[in-house]
Amino acid sequence: KSGGEARMGDLDAAELEHVIGFTGQNHHALTSHPRDPNILLHGIGHVVVIADQTDPHKQDLLRGHDSEVVSVAFSPSGRLLATGQRQSMHRDGEQVIVWEYESRKPVYRLTGVEGTVKSLKFSEDDRFLAAFGDGSGNGNDLAIWDMQNGGVAQFVKCPQNVTCMCWGPTVVADDTRRTKTPKYSLFTFHSVRVNVHFLEYDLRTMHYALKTQLVKFPSAGLTRTYHCCCLAPSLGELVAGTSVGEMMVFNTDNLIYRATLPISTNGIISIAACGEHVYVGAGDGKVKKLQGNDQYWTILDETQVTGRVTSLTVRADQEEIILGTDAAIMYTVRMSDLALRVLQRSSVSAIRGVSFGSRSDVFAAISADGTMSILDLSDYSVLASARGPCAASCVTFDGEDRVLTGWEDGGLRIFSAANGDLMGHITKCHRGKVSCIVVGSEFIYTAGEDGTMRVWSNRSLEFVSQFAEHSKPITGLVADNVHKNQVHTCAGDRMVITYDLKTGRRANFKSHKDGAFTGMCQRIDSEQELLTSTTDGFVLSWDCDVATPVMALDSGRRMKFMCTAISSGGRFVAVGCEDMAVRIWDIQTGEIVAACMGHSGEIKQVSWSPDEKQVVSCGEDGALCVWNFYLGGMDSARE
Predict the structure, then answer these.
(1) Which tens digits make up the pLDDT trace of 444-503?
(2) Apex CA 474: angle with CA 473 and CA 480, to 5°?
């Protein structure tokens, strides 16, 4: 059977419930809504996430970018939001998208910035949006767009790279003028200079014109790399953070440098002002609260977080600060006493595997940075975690407490799901990384990139036997549902092999000439056929008595299938596809019932919850996607 794909809107058996994946690697990729204190805006891979802090299940995802979203901004009124992406291999322009907040729909797709979009800033009346990219060795570009029509109001080629910027005070024309159009000022920071660009309406041309002036420095000059800047609480002042941990103060009325104040180590990376105070986030993980003006500032309080503070934004109620670190942790910080609360934890690297145990509300995940996490689906919090010595490669959640993990050093490590403690360890399980783990009643079965399948005692972890007939890495491993002495493997050598543990020999053999195997699972109905995903875009069903596949599922499009998993009821199979979608087939009809778009990188693994109501997928983009599945439990194969 071949299940052709219907229109995306017709495939509504699954819906994205939540995405976890804030990495904190980019300096301007997190901000809060200026009017609603509960709304956060950030990017996860190619996707823009609008999240509600009061309800972790409320997320809106905006899709329109074809590369990683690295900068985000709300307009001061909250009516618009802008998102910028990393330089794309597929497009030269339209790196910036402006969205309407209420409708969640794009308003403008903007060109004018070369390379990755490093920062986006709206003027205080929403009229203009400024952005700059990382440019090239000859400098970068500064673009200013008019939000009334989406056109480029001004474009500036900067010989010396802009590293940060902010809008200065907006001046409304006085009553003696015939026109009352406001005059804008935009400060841009370069290594050896600070420029202020005045945007003023020209009656002769009927357009806004740009005039640039230099901010005055001491005659000796100051060379700095600026990371961040904002208007200070005191009128007529602007503060900026540098790579050497200084806060520099400028007078915006006289356009003159005023002071350099050593604040922190490893640089000041983020900065924000609220009320009478300035808050700075540093590369040493410290957040400091300052008060003062001109040359006189006092550090009132400080707190320590994990990782470099790459983003810092003030909530609309002005009671808390939201900050993100490059350790993939999001915090809320109470302004009054800098008390911390972890809002979200993610992974800074690719998620290599996910697995459910016996519970449907808890699952395990492992990542390339060596982290094993147990997550609660009720609030997406981390219940327990552990770190390994290298990159993790696969995971199996056994029952309620044991989490078995495979590693690139060839080791097998067993952790407690309750507290993350190490419960057992096999040092050299395989030569090279462990690719698959399956747990039976008596034995633990492991497979590796060395092409071998090994059997270990479930109790003592002692070696029992091994089978080494594959010539390429094993990609799928299944302990037979009916015959407890049989184990099935598939590999990149295009072979499916069944081993008999009693005889210690191969019991069956299948091959596929057109594509390598990437994953395997087993049906629990019909003849207990094996299902394999392939690099040529099929899910093939294999009967032990037939040499060729007895059924083939495909999407109607030629693409690689990365992984596969069958639902607990046995009726549905989920497949991670090369186009970064998770597709779900109804095996009985051969039709696709859901096409789930949420990832922006290769999907590494999918896993079903035991109650068949949710699917969790993970990928190279560092994201965990939780999908609600609405056909779970209906007419299952067991019934």
Answers:
(1) 999 999 999 999 999 999 999 999 999 999 999 999 999 999 999 999 999 999 999 999
(2) 170
What is the spatial distance between Cα 199 and Cα 185, in angstroms, rounded to a whole number? 6
Contact 14, 575 (CB under 8 A): no
Distance, in Å, from the CA atom of 622 to the CA atom of 354, rounded to the nearest integer, reads 12
Residue-wise pLDDT tens digits, 351-377: 999 999 999 999 999 999 999 999 999
**What does residue 202 show for φ and ψ, rounded to 5 degrees?**
-105, 115
pLDDT in tens, 8-60: 444 579 988 899 999 999 998 999 999 999 999 999 988 899 999 998 889 99
One-letter-per-residue 3-state SS of 106-146: EEEEECCCCCCEEEEEECCCCCEEEEEECCECCEEEEEEEE
Do strands 463-467 and 59-63 pair parallel, antiparallel, or not at all (unpaired)?
unpaired
Is-contact 590 1, C-beta < 8 A? yes
Of the listed ranges 167-176, 272-281, 439-448, the least confidently predicted one is: 167-176
Q: Where is average pLDDT lowest: 169-173, 325-329, 499-503?
A: 169-173
Q: Please, are residues 327 and 22 in contact by the beta-carbon 8 Å criterion?
A: no
Is the pLDDT confidence value at 638 over 60? no
- Whether residue 287 contacts residue 280, with contact meaning beta carbons closer than 8 Å, is answered with yes
Q: What's the CA gap between 603 and 76, in Å, rounded?
A: 37
Identity of residue 346 = S
* Helices and strands counted in the chain (H then E): 0, 56
Tokens found for residue 148: 């009334």
Instruction: Yes or no: say if 322 and 30 are a contact pair by the CB < 8 Å rule.
Output: yes
325 closest CA partner among 385, 270, 273, 378: 270
β-pair partners for 73: 82
Q: How crowded is the C-beta side of 186, counted as CA atoms within 13 Å?
A: 28
Per-residue pLDDT, averaged over 79-99, amounts to 87
Where b means 16+ CB within 10 Å and e means fewer, 495-527 reads bbbbbbbeeeeebbebebeebbbbbbbbbbeee
**What is the pairing mode between strands 105-110 and 96-100?**
antiparallel
Mean of per-residue pLDDT scores for the chain: 91
Q: What is the pLDDT of residues 99-119, one digit of tens each?
A: 999 999 999 999 988 889 999
Question: Can you give the pLDDT at residue 138?
Answer: 65
Taking the complete model, does pTM exceed 0.90, yes or no?
no
Q: Which of 376, 373, 388 is nearest to 434 (CA)?
A: 388
Q: Is 245 left (phi over 0), alpha (psi -120 to 50) or beta?
A: left
Which tokens belong to 107? Answer: 């308003």
Quick one: which H or E segment has residue 75?
Answer: none
- Sheet arrangement for strand 539-542: 517-522, 530-534, 539-542, 551-553
Structure tokens at 78: 């909250």
pLDDT above 80 (res 70): yes
Cβ pair 489, 499 in contact under 8 A: yes
Q: In what order do the strands lie in the sheet containing 412-416?
A: 392-398, 402-407, 412-416, 422-426
Alpha-carbon distances, residue 339 vs 291, 316, 321, 537 (angstroms): 18, 18, 10, 51
| Structure-token pair, residue 400 | 């309620």
Instruction: Of 263, 268, 279, give the one whose Cα is nearest residue 336.
Output: 279
Look at the block and give the residue holding tokens 């990139």. Answer: 449
Is residue 15 packed enough to be buried (19+ CB in 10 Å), middle (13-18) or exposed (0-12)?
exposed
Place of tokens 């019932």: 593
